[in-house]
Amino acid sequence: MRKSILLLLTLLILILQTGCWSRIELNDVAIVTASAIDLAQDGKYKLSVQILKMKMTKGMSEKGGSSEKATLIMSARGDTIMEAFNVLDKKIPRLIIFSHNRVIIVGEKLARAGLAPAIDFFSRHREARGNSFLLTTRGEAAELLKVPANFEIFTAEEMREEEKASMLDTASIRDFIYRLFEKGIEPTSSQMQIVPMSDPNGDPTKEDEMGLGLVGVGIYRKDKLLGWMDRPEAECLLWLRNRMKNAILTVAIPGKDKSTGRVSVQVNGAKTKFKSKISGEKIQFDISVKMTGELFENSTKLSIKEMNNLNIIQQALEKEIENRVTMTVTKLQKQFKSDVIGFGNILHRQHKNDWNKTYVSRWEEEFPNIEVNTKATFKLIGTGRANESIVDEEELEK
Amino acid sequence: MAPSEQRENAASSYTLSADLNENFKQFQTVFDKCGDIQYRQFEWNTAQRGAFIVLNGVGDINAVNMDLLKQAVESSLTGAVQELTEEHRAAIQSKLSFTSQTSWSDDFQTSVEEVLSGALAVLLDGFTQVLLLNVKGLETRSIEEPATEAVIRGPRDGFQENISTNISLIRRRLKTTQLKLEMFTAGKLSGTDIAITYLEGIAKESLITEVKERVGRIQIDAILESGYVEELIEDHSLSPFPQVLVTERPDKVVGNLLEGKVAIIVDNTPFVIVVPGTFFQLLQTPEDYYQRYFVASAIRILRFIAVVSSLLLPSLYIALTTYHHEMIPTMLLISIASSRETVPFPAFVEALLMEVAFEGLREAGVRLPRPVGQGVSIVGALVIGQAAVAAGIVSSPLLIIVSMTGIASFLFPSFQLGLAFRLLRFPMMIAAATFGLYGILMLVLLLLLHMLHLQSFGVPYMAPLSPLRAGELKDVLFRANWMKLKKSPRSS
């Protein structure tokens, strides 16, 4: 009995001596929601973070809007990210935590110089999340943090929502690093810009509400940014990587009496298959894209009731898909010479020995020369509520 | 010398004599200053005398009955009888046995005890034996719906304070001679009747012997409630968990008897003990078996969720908000953090305050007379609910946690088990406040170890989950169709 009490006391002392070593109350933390990294003039890193001001967020949710902003943006420079972070941490009375950092934005200058040294911090620090989205932007990354949020409480959440809903090839920090390490595939990251809400492609005027928009994808070789791909091509990247969630395809179909109508379909299923062939020095890829979708808009005179008309639409769509795939692949091969789709990866899987023997070391030189043939099939699985073309009927009345 | 011992000594030292006066005087000494004792002396035909002794209220007899009784005794004893013979006995008994249970006793002490528990003693001049008529008639309450275990569907009768009524409630559900009842008396002063009941052939012989032995071992002055018995016979008195099932419902007792358990009925309390008690049995209600089995299974699952949340919710809140901010989804973290912004206390103190306040309110609600109780609940709702949050003393997410915990702890079918979990919540909160999730995990492990170690009358507490008897699980985690449960399972 005495022994057991002694044992218990000893255990209790052991436990109590340690104290509550990592206990931090929620009132003592500053939550980072987004961070931006730029390359400063002097070659140092400039780390900017968006921090939530908690009392403001409460006001936002209760009164539905307050004049003060819910977030605070701070910047610091340092030779390493950690150093800059340390400067930031000392500026405010609360402990900065990174565990809810949802997006990491990298400026173009830094991306072109090489991302690896900068994102090492985010892959190593135990608070940082692998599933934070990696974004690149033309110009200063810090500028993006300053855009006021239109729907959410803070911008980072908006960025993330946009990433999640997007139809572009998105990448988290973890994805990016995996693709960096993997042979036969190059990383990408989404490109986010400040765009006018009225017309994302037009020039902003003063009256325009500004918002954030995903406008394309940054193409990398290793960790260095090479250039951008705009939306249509970036969408195509998704099809090729079998990541498509949904997309809209629009094709023009010439009518009989020279009047061209358009057809828009919502694609809701896509499957892409690759077949590789090695014949001597030549590498050939056969890509077959199979898509299903629903007809959502039809401004042609074609009546959907006719099977033949459906075939015309489907063939037009198939042609469009083939064109876009070819265009995208050609651009990657000729302009960027970067295999972001992962042809090398597929070759590795399908011709393991050849890959290991010859191509693994010189895939970069080989990639621009591969031959790619595309075959697309599109199947309409729904035509919406209307059968007849309204356009057609109006014409008939005249 | 204590009065009880004095009385006992007097009783045990005296042997009945043939002289009525002598005997009568002894009874008078023993029942000295007992205001509720009634003596009636009478003479019968040959100028020989007799006496009735009965306790008011305990023995139910009135003047008319007494007169009839006297005549019956007289008519069976003709002439002067000095020695009691078999003949006389038979004559009296045959006259009286129709009205009530009779017996002859030649031991003074037994006679006194019988009178105390409601017998009418008849002393006859010249007889060394006392005729005891059982005229027990206690004031009792009528059978009502049990207050602590209400059901939507199911019988509405509940046990009450009278042991024989309680036994009859069980008997009428089991019309079989297999249902056995063994009577015990315990408590030096209270002399409480205890009945051990079981189904012969279904309950294990070893279990019955064990229960009888433990009940027989009880040494205590008085037993006022079955809680005394529970504590005196349970295996681990240092555990917070109840190891016997306590119920007010006859159908629940019968259901358990059919599973091979043994019930202990204690006089003067509506709460019947069923042993052995297991954890999962404590989480079942008879209604599980009356409702459709899909619904019943869903409710059981809900109950398991309630068990976990009543134990862990506040501590998880503390652990997550003070140690593991990264584990809370961002938007949730933001709403928690923003409402915590003005709170002057650490999360642990905040939670402790609210939990204690809640427990206090609940206890007050039980104790207070009904009209005042309402006032308490209004004040409580205002203080706990609105004012505290409005003043920024506590955060509203914590309030939600506390009320969810409260609701969860009301879901326990066994009030005792609910109490255990209410209590364990507090060490759990301390563990969470000092070590975060790690602390919770450690304490949960300890608790599990403890629960796995517990045994009730030789049956592991966590049976049939551990040791695993897969066949019986169909009536533990969910309730299978009666088609599959036709045969009563044998416990242990």
Structural notes for this entry:
The complex is a heterodimer of chains A (398) and B (492). Chain A has a domain at 246-398: 2-Layer Sandwich (GMP Synthetase, Chain A, domain 3). In chain A, the strands form two sheets. In chain A, strands 1, 2, 3, 4, 5, 6, 7, 8 and 9 form a nine-stranded mixed β-sheet that branches. Chain A has helices at 2-18, 54-63, 81-91, 108-113, 116-124, 142-145, 155-165, 173-181, 231-240, 307-336, 343-350, 352-366, 390-397, and strands spanning 29-39, 45-52, 71-78, 95-97, 103-107, 133-137, 188-196, 210-221, 224-230, 247-254, 260-279, 282-298, 371-382. In chain A, a hairpin with a 5-residue loop joins strand 1 and strand 2. In chain A, helix 9 (231-240) crosses helix 10 (307-336) and helix 11 (343-350) packs antiparallel against helix 12 (352-366). Chain A has 398 residues and is of the alpha/beta class. In chain B, helix 3 runs antiparallel to helix 4 (86-96) and helix 12 (293-322) runs parallel beside helix 17 (415-435). In chain B, strand 6 (179-186) and strand 7 (192-199) form a beta hairpin. In chain B, the strands form three sheets. A five-stranded antiparallel β-sheet of chain B has the order 1-2-4-5-3, sandwiched between helices. The mean pLDDT of chain B is 85. In chain B, 36% of the residues are buried. Chain B folds into three domains: 3-134, no CATH class; 163-277, no CATH class; 289-475, no CATH class.
Question: What's the arrangement of secondary structure elements?
Answer:
The complex is a heterodimer of chains A (398) and B (492).
Chain A: H1 2-18, E1 29-39, E2 45-52, H2 54-63, E3 71-78, H3 81-91, E4 95-97, E5 103-107, H4 108-113, H5 116-124, E6 133-137, H6 142-145, H7 155-165, H8 173-181, E7 188-196, E8 210-221, E9 224-230, H9 231-240, E10 247-254, E11 260-279, E12 282-298, H10 307-336, H11 343-350, H12 352-366, E13 371-382, H13 390-397
Parallel strand pairs in A: 1-4, 1-5, 5-6, 6-7, 12-13
Antiparallel strand pairs in A: 1-2, 2-3, 7-8, 8-9, 10-11, 11-12
Chain B: H1 3-13, H2 20-30, E1 37-44, E2 48-55, H3 63-76, H4 86-96, E3 102-105, H5 108-116, E4 119-124, E5 130-134, H6 163-171, E6 179-186, E7 192-199, H7 205-216, H8 226-233, E8 245-247, H9 250-258, E9 262-266, E10 272-275, H10 279-282, H11 287-290, H12 293-322, H13 330-340, H14 347-367, H15 370-390, H16 396-410, H17 415-435, H18 437-453, E11 455-456, E12 459-460, H19 482-485
Antiparallel strand pairs in B: 1-2, 2-4, 3-5, 4-5, 6-7, 7-9, 8-10, 9-10, 11-12
Helix pairs in contact in B: 3-4, 12-16, 12-17, 14-15, 14-16, 14-17, 17-18
